[in-house]
Known about the structure:
8-stranded mixed beta sheet
Amino acid sequence: xxxxxxxxxxxxxGERRVALDPSAVKxxxxxxxxVLVQATAGVGAGFSDSDYEAVGAKVVxxxxxxxxxxxxxxxxxxxxxxxxxxxxxxxxxxxxHLAAEPELATALATKGVEAYAxxxxxxxxxxxxxxxxxxxxxxxxxxxxxxYLAMGSGVLLGGSAxxxxxxxxxxxxxxxxxxxxxxxxGMDAEVTGIDIDLxxxxxxxxxxxxxxxxxxxxxxxxxxxxGADLVIGAALVTGARAPRLVLREHVTNMRPGSVIVDLAxxxxxxxxxxxxxxxxxxxxxxLGVIHYCVTNVPGxxxxxxxxALSAAVAPKLIELARDPGSSKLAGSLNVAGGKxxxxxxxxxxxx
Length: 351
């Protein structure tokens, strides 16, 4: 039975989001739960300790007190410095991305934590807790892509009179990819969308989200990437590692100074040359191409991202506290009883 909910301060590099804003905490308190908030947990997103105290939360100085709660809710996967707080009976609700985090999966299972993942919770065929951050990440991808393209090849996304615009390729037109494509089109770039879903391609073209579409295949991706100034990878398979769609040989054919933004990196990445980066050190160059592979992209817009995430998470959190077996939490349970119980995650980890 859950009596207390803990909200820790995020420890991942550059992560300034908080899982619950004061409004969401107020909802949890009114539902009858004691909410423990670690001091300064919301400051990066613009929420003071007094804001949380005003809605009935108890602000505590250290992480240990928060992690002692029955149910802990946070944004990003627990970092190694937090694994010492794992214990049998603890319920955890967060972005986990275990297919790309085998050591974390082992730690959770070994310590008997009951772990629920935001990114695998399914509802009406969608992913309601992943969607808001995918939207923020997609919008950000066009912005950071344009920024690093200026530092690399010096190409302006929208071009100029007498100069053609940049060519952008977006792979995967889910929420993140669609928002990335819209952002690039908003800066007047030529945008090619690639997906396996032909109906999704049709809709994107009809709505003007992209200027061209391609059905996904290794050959089509290779040709499109070779001529691209900016490639945005946004391919997703729920719970699994991201499919490797942009191969090393494709990257080799890109022009020097081109840019890759891999939004699937927190699930392992859909670009073969991609490896995780951080807000402190966001890019690296390989094969003459600038790679941006930050694993918590929305963390650089913490106010907007925290508000959006909190609104989606709050009702599911209260449901989890009341009834962990609720159908409204379908697909979210990843680890229980010392085992990886989500079938897709288990397959990805070969458990």
